[in-house]
Model the fold of this input.
Amino acid sequence: MSSLENRIVLITGASSGIGLAAARMFAEEGATVVLAARNQERLSEVEKEFKSKGYRFLVKQCDVRKSKEVDSLVQGAVSQFGKIDILVNNAGTALYGLVEETPDEALQDNLEVNLLGTLRCTRAVIPGMRKQQWGRIINIGSVVGKRGWAFHGAYAASKFALTGLTQSLQAELANSGITATLVMPASTKTNFFSSATIVSDSYQPTMLGPVQSAEVVAKYIIKSAKQPKENVYTIWWMKWSFILAEMVPWLYSTASKQFFRRKNKQNQVK
Done:
C-alpha cells in the first residue's frame, strides 16, 4: 500500500463534510493538505484546528466556478509546496425538485460547481502531474450519477456528466502515471441537504437508502489515493444493485415511480 507521507493533497469543498473529514485523514497520514472552499469563516475555524494539531497545511478561499480563482489556487499551492500529487474534487452543491420546475439559472449554477468546477481544477493540475509522471485525481460523484431518481433530475444530470468526465480521463491518462477515480457515496450525514437548493415546494430532501458518515466516505478517498481503482462505491452492495438494474431495468424504474407517488401523497396530506 502506497504511503501518503509528504504527498501534497489539494481538496476542494474542504471546510466541512466529506472534504474536511478527508483533509483530517490525509493530514494524519503525514500528507500536506491544501484546503480550498468558498466559506472563509469556516476555513478560519479549520485553520485554527489544523494549527493546534501541528498538521502541514494551507487554507485558501476559492470559488471553483471562477477559472481565475482555481488557477490562483493551484499556482499558490505549487509555489509553496513545489507540486500537487493528489487532487480531490469534492466541491459540490445539491439541487432538488421536479424537472419541469427547474429554472435554467439553478441548473447552470449547479453545473458550474459539480461539473465545470471539477473540470477547471483537473485541467489546472494535470500538466504538473504529467511532468512528475505521478498523480491521483479523485472525483466525488454520487450513486445518482449511475441511475436517476425522482426529484433529483438536475442534480443527477450533473453527476452523470461527472461520471462521463471521469471515464474519459481514465482513458486519456492511461500509462501516464496519473489515475482518475470516481468515488460514489450514498446519502451522507453532512450539511449537504440543509444547504441544498429546492426548486419545488412539493419536495423536501430526505436521506434515501443507507446513510453513512463523512468519515466513512473519507476512508474510501484515502484508500483510493493509496490503491486507486476506477470506480469506488462506498456502500458495497450498490455496485450489484446497479448491475441488477441494468439486467432488470423495470425493477429500478418501478421503485423510482413508487417513491415519486409516495412523496406526492405525503405532500398532499400536508
User: Anything to note?
Assistant: The CA atoms of residues 86 and 117 lie 16 Å apart. Helices lie at 17-28, 40-52, 67-81, 104-132, 153-172, 214-226, 238-247, 249-269. The mean pLDDT is 89.
